[in-house]
Amino acid sequence: MSRFWKPGTERPQLVDDEEGGVIFVSSTPSHSIEKQRQRLPVYKYRTHILYLVENHAATIIVGETGSGKTTQIPQFLNEAGWAEGGRVIACTQPRRLSVQSVAARVAEEMGVTLGDEVGYTIRFEDLTKPGVTRIKFLTDGVLLREMMEDPLLTKYSVIMVDEAHERSLSTDILLGLLKKIQCRRPELRLIISSATIEAKSMSAFFRPSKRREEKGADKLGPTKEPAILSVEGKGFTVQTHYLEEPASDYLRTAVSTILAIHDQEPPGDVLVFLTGQDDIDAAVQLLTEDNTRRSSGLLVLPLYSGLSRADQELIFSPTPRSKRKVIISTNIAETSLTLEGVVYVVDSGFSKQRFYNPISDIENLVVAPISKASARQRAGRAGRVRPGKCYRLYTEEFFNKEMSAHGIPEMQRSNLASSIIQLKALGIDNILGFDWPAPPAPEAMVRALEILYLLGVIDDDAKLTSPVGFQVAEIPLDATVSKMILSGHLLGCSEEVITVAAILSIQSIWVSVRGSQKELDEAKLRFAAAEGDHVTYLNVYKAYLQSGKSPQWCHKNFINYQAMKKVVETRGQLTRIAHRLGIALKSCEKDTEVFRKAVTAGFFTNACRLEGGVYKTVRNSQEVHIHPSSVLFRVNPKWVVYHSLVLTDRHYMRNVMTIEPSWLTEAAPNLYQQKSSNFDAR
Ligand SMILES: Nc1ncnc2c1ncn2[C@@H]1O[C@H](COP(=O)(O)OP(=O)(O)OP(=O)(O)O)[C@@H](O)[C@H]1O
Questions:
Q1: Domain Helicase ATP-binding spans what residues (predicted)?
Q2: For residue 546, is pLDDT > 60?
Q3: Predicted interface score ipTM higher than 0.85
Q4: Other CB atoms within 10 A of residue 105 CB
Q5: Which residues sit with their C-beta closer than 6 Å to ligand 1?
Q6: Atom of ligand 1 nearest to the CA of 63
């Protein structure tokens, strides 16, 4: 048991949830779905919501987690006729998992087959029927892509942007575009919903500018003044427990908290929020290795984006009798999900967040404290079908004083290259004048335009180039990776670049077992290539196929079997996209130089050279170091490119590959020029 928190002792740190008052407390959930629906707080607001949607172009709805926003409002709209005449009601979610689970739930509540009246679309999977589907759940990213085919989204009568507090890049772009679409389609209604959104600033964003009102635009149709509705009432109680003292190691504290719950609390599954694949794998290992009585009866499941879909979907499978399921997740389970068995939530208080510095052009993934809004979302995964408990692995003082109310919108802390490509592909060329819900820093915008220009994605007039720019827009990956794929095609190694793109899209293919570093290093040596990590990955992938995709082979070689399944899945998806773009798979066989040139053509902005024993980025002379996980750690070749940087005590390059400096001039003559043996970035 953790020494920081004493569950089950006389005076646990029991603190009521912020808002106090509980409306529906029951320990005997109804068996009838219809009765369950009627008990949800949102049910009492049905008429009010329909009135507001009828009369306002945009309605902002705030209601506690679990109050019924996502599952009920689309059904109210359907019942009120918003899906008549072939029109469709859309409800967006920030993540694929929640799209699938809420769609399945709504289909069940309506007694229809999923994919008929109620369907969903996520990247690479469309479970809808044109002319039949009335309510469609989809990720905000997918809705953005639909705009490329149908810029005014004409088939939708109402679009509900759910979990809008997340303020992901896609959500913000979508909000900006939906506002624009409404000028052309006054009949389109928007609903913006969340438990933790700043309703006032969202309303201010959707308020029409004075100038447009004066010009007499949009005279017809609903009032342009957005409505705000606050849905009062909660689901079941969630008791919140805080640590008495800060935890020095949240991973170990999480593990001891899980074991304490298992030991002392009545049955019920546990959902644990950690930060990423590495600490989740470590926690799974600590729990599964603990062969004592304390952990017997636990069914431990990891959940993060680097898992194959089949492995992610295990979280929805029923918990076997006499077992307690423990799901250890990143924040992908933070919003919208209802996992029926979950009674206990353990919140580490941290997540991995992107922070981009446009001056140095460095994007870091940093483990940082979450916001109060995220903490409330995490707690809200309990108390949905019965009362629950949330154990926060931080002190109440930390919650009150250190955690910000809302996180910084992703738009203001990210590299904007991909967003700009998306807008340009939609024909929006004046990016600086775009109406953003939270404008990004002009420096970030300029930096992104500069990089896109160097990659040959946009031209001198900042328009998408043909074909490269339009092709890059079609590939749902970072522009650098997409450019690598296109260059691989031209150089005759599309097969290799697609494999590596799939591997780079997950955090790590290696199993890092605490205390087994030496064995892991030895395993890596079996595949290690002098050219660096990218070529090493090709060796691993080939050997994995030769093993017949064997889990035992993975285990023996310290390779994460789940990660490899995900690689195969992603590779298949990328191959299909490539095929659509006219790119056939072609291998350069053993010619690693050709392959490395293709990688350099995508990642030349991440070139570094060794100077006096330290690496400096060629563009900004920023000091960086090779990450110990790289096969080039301690090898120190003169010239390298890297895929990403992580910031811990210093900047570490992850996924590093050797290059020849002349490849940089070939790849980006606008950026690099070679003066005899010296090398300058312009
Ligand atoms: N798959 C499910 N199984 C059982 N009950 C469910 C399921 N999905 C939803 N529910 C019930 O419906 C309630 C409302 O869920 P819904 O997702 O609509 O709430 P919400 O207000 O959108 O919450 P959040 O803000 O957390 O997304 C849940 O609290 C739960 O009682």
A1: 50-215
A2: yes
A3: yes
A4: 18
A5: 40, 63, 65-72, 102, 105, 195, 235, 335-336, 338, 340, 380, 384-385
A6: 21
